[in-house]
């Protein structure tokens, strides 16, 4: 806190990891001897830049751009870019720190990084978004590259924004260096199943957790929050596997559809004409739109928070448990507050933290990098099969490390932190004092 004043989210993320690592450090004195903790909490590099742009009325704006290159022990920095008014140095550092361990869990050769801007894309025209993306990339392009740092999308940055940023990068460096960004369009270097990857991976991780208790997804009722990339494809995969998703949300409110979410309608609203979730109930009169109350009060078997950080607090966690939830898996990063995590920890429900449960997106980004290096384009079946295998492996690693360090197989918080940390720490030691 003294070295990073005012960075509350970053402190929380670091505390969340470090508090679970005591047994790991006991079994590995070399990590303490070689100051791994002191090094791992310090980003290798932080880039902070000005993003000036002009709106459609000719008014000047200046936003802040960030890129934190946190750790390259396992590969080039890799992590998304977020455009949201809440983006700050603290938010980017918290996300970048978590990304190190998440990326390690995927088993791929990717280090950890994250970026973003406090730009608010809400209500901006397509040309404003394009100009902003071009200015953002003009500030960033010197510091990224296919073997150096590979950004991707996150909140507020989808295929359209990645496309505009890639176009500007190409223009600035004069080369078609496909591997510099992931989340590209499938026709020009993107991977099939990248759009679906985080949501599909989240459902795969949930399925693996349920398997340990002899259950599957068939006929389970599920609450999902958010209605963006992660939420929509989690809902799609749940429906494919016979589950019944009944909620979704955006920053204006949440929808409860007891009949099960009509995915085609939701996609049309959010992906085609970029509307609000309230539009859904106009077409589905039996569904309810709520601006008050909590989405987590809906009684469900499974909850998949997939909107923003801190969307579940201790009261929400208690309400979910009281209503009989069996499993909670995080699509969003740091979905649950620290005291909410304590509530889940003290219960016997299955709780999959984001760094394990939502790693499917970055895993397929790593597969996109592989396809770019080889100048190949794999089939959807191929990528989806690899994604499933990676999520199963992440679950196994979490369970094994949980067993090794806590004596029980289902402490996914401790298991994911330990598994990610050990892989990074061993690589850092092997590479000397860097
Ligand atoms: P999107 O921008 O596509 O969607 C975010 C969704 O969350 C939108 O529906 C947004 O609504 C909603 N939202 C924002 N604030 C609130 C709020 N206060 N209450 C309810 N809903 C809200 O982002 P993604 O789906 O890509 O990302 C969602 C989360 O998943 C983030 O935490 C991200 O870091 C994480 N994640 C994403 C990955 C990916 O591959 N995309 C990979 C791993 C993690 P509105 O339109 O009103 O803002």
Q: Could you walk me through the main structural features you see in this protein, from its secondary elements to its overall organization?
A:
Helix 6 (126-140) crosses helix 7 (159-173) and helix 8 (194-211) crosses helix 9. The protein has helices at residues 8-18, 22-27, 29-33, 36-40, 89-105, 126-140, 159-173, 194-211, 229-240, 263-272, 278-283, 314-322, 338-346, 354-357, 360-374, 380-406, 412-430; strands at 45-54, 60-71, 77-83, 112-117, 149-152, 221-224, 244-250, 253-256, 288-290, 302-304, 327-329, 350-352. Helix 12 links the parallel strand 10 (302-304) and strand 11. The mean pLDDT is 97. Among the domains are: 40-178, Leucine Dehydrogenase, chain A, domain 1 (Rossmann fold, 3-Layer(aba) Sandwich), CATH 3.40.50.10860; 196-348, Rossmann fold (3-Layer(aba) Sandwich), CATH 3.40.50.720. 47% of the residues lie in helices and 15% in strands. NADPH dihydro-nicotinamide-adenine-dinucleotide phosphate is lined by residues 153-156, 158, 198, 225-231, 249-252, 306-308, 331-333, 358, 361. Substrate binds at residues 78, 99, 102, 153, 365. Residues 191-432 form the Glutamate/phenylalanine/leucine/valine/L-tryptophan dehydrogenase C-terminal domain. This is Glutamate dehydrogenase. The record marks 154 as: Important for catalysis.
* Structure class: alpha/beta
Residue share in β-strands:
15-25%
Strand order in the sheet with the most strands: 9-8-7-6-10-11-12
Largest beta-sheet details: 7 strands, mixed
Average pLDDT score? 97
Radius of gyration: 21 Å
Helix percent band: 40-55%
What small molecules are bound in this structure?
NADPH dihydro-nicotinamide-adenine-dinucleotide phosphate
Q: Count of helical segments? A: 17
Tell me, what's the shape? globular
- Beta strand count: 12
Element-by-element helix/strand order: HHHHEEEHEHEHHEHEEHHEEHEHEHHHH
């Amino acid at each position: 806190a003294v070295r990073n004043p005012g960075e509350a989210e970053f402190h929380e993320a670091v505390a969340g990891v470090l508090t679970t690592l005591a047994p790991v450090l006991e079994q590995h004195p070399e990590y303490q001897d070689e100051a791994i903790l002191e090094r791992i909490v310090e980003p290798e590099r932080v880039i902070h830049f000005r993003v000036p742009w002009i709106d459609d009325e000719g008014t000047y704006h200046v936003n802040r751009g960030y890129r934190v290159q946190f750790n390259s022990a396992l590969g080039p920095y890799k992590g998304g870019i977020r455009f949201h008014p809440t983006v700050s140095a603290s938010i980017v550092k918290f996300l970048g720190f978590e990304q190190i361990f998440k990326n390690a869990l995927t088993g791929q050769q990717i280090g950890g990084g994250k970026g973003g801007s406090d730009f608010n894309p809400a209500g901006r025209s397509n040309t404003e978004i394009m100009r902003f993306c071009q200015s953002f990339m003009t500030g960033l392009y010197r510091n990224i590259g296919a073997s150096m740092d590979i950004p991707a999308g996150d909140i507020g940055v989808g295929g359209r924004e990645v496309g505009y940023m890639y176009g500007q990068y190409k223009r600035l460096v004069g080369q078609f260096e496909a591997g510099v960004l992931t989340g590209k369009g499938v026709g020009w270097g993107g991977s099939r199943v990248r759009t679906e990857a985080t949501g599909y991976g989240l459902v795969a991780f949930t399925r693996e957790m349920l398997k340990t208790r002899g259950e599957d997804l068939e006929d389970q009722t599920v609450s999902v929050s958010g209605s963006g990339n992660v939420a929509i494809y989690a809902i799609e995969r749940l429906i494919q596997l016979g589950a019944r998703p009944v909620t979704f949300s955006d920053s204006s409110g949440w929808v409860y559809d007891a009949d099960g979410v009509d995915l085609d309608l939701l996609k049309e609203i959010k992906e085609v004409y970029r509307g609000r979730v309230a539009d859904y109930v106009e077409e589905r009169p039996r569904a309810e739109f709520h601006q008050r109350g909590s989405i987590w009060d809906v009684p469900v078997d499974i909850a998949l928070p997939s909107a923003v950080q801190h969307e579940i607090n201790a009261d929400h966690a208690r309400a979910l448990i009281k209503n009989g939830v069996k499993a909670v898996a995080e699509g969003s990063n740091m979905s649950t507050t620290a005291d909410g995590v304590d509530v889940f920890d003290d219960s016997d429900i299955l709780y999959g933290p984001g760094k394990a449960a939502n790693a499917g997106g970055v895993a397929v980004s790593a597969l996109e990098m592989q396809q770019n290096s080889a100048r190949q384009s794999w089939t959807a079946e191929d990528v989806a099969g690899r994604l499933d295998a990676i999520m199963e492996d992440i679950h196994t690693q979490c369970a094994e490390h949980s067993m090794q360090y806590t004596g029980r197989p289902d402490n996914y918080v401790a298991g994911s932190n330990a598994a990610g940390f050990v892989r990074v720490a061993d690589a850092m030691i092997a590479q000397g004092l860097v």
